[in-house]
Amino acid sequence: MAEFMRYLFLLLLLPVAAMSQSVTNQNVFDTIPFIPEHTPQRIAQFQKEPVVTGRVMFLGNSITEMGDWKKVLNDTTVINRGIGGDITYGVLKRLDDVIIRKPSKLFILLGINDIGKDIPTAVIADNYLKIVNEVHRKCPDTKIYVQSVLPLNPTMPRFPQHYDKEEYVLKLNVLLKANAKAGNYTFVDIFHLFLDADQRLESKYSYEGLHLKPEAYVVWVDYLKKMKYL
User: Fold this and answer.
1) Is 54 left (phi over 0), alpha (psi -120 to 50) or beta?
2) Tens of pLDDT, residues 207-227
3) What is the CATH classification number for the domain harbouring 135?
4) What gap in Å lies between CA 202 and CA 77, rounded to an integer?
């Protein structure tokens, strides 16, 4: 019986051993955007637009897409390259659309969807560096501004619970700020603009604790102007 139990134990270990030998440096997180069907629709829309260089561009996810940048900046030449549900991996795949337009200034806001997919903050920050390095390489005159990920408010009604990861937002912002010199970009802290007394996203600025209302974009742009980034 003892010999049989030893044999059975070894059999149970075999799949574990095989797995440990076959899994090498593989991603254990999902790298597909949250709304995959929306991405080709937006890209098709981008492709219909004339290629004009030297403009101000905002690049990111739904928070960027929902911004009426032309109105809030009173500038019809501003380019919106936000795609709802997008993540850093998605932006890496669509950088050609950015580079061909050689923006004078590029404002990036990404990461909350990555966090929602449990992508490690170190990986997100590294993807940021890949994005900015590629833009620097092909658009050396573009000034790049990496904006902090915004605060969240999980106490608001209809808050999507898979985003309830405030600690990771803070960790990512620390990394994005720390990498500014290495990435040769300007880190812009917009996190503090929208905080309430409990250090959460101020409810008057948000629909559900994640996305911003139009008046929040006014505060955002006013700050960019105050800091002379715009």
Assistant:
1) left
2) 999 999 999 999 999 999 999
3) 3.40.50.1110
4) 30
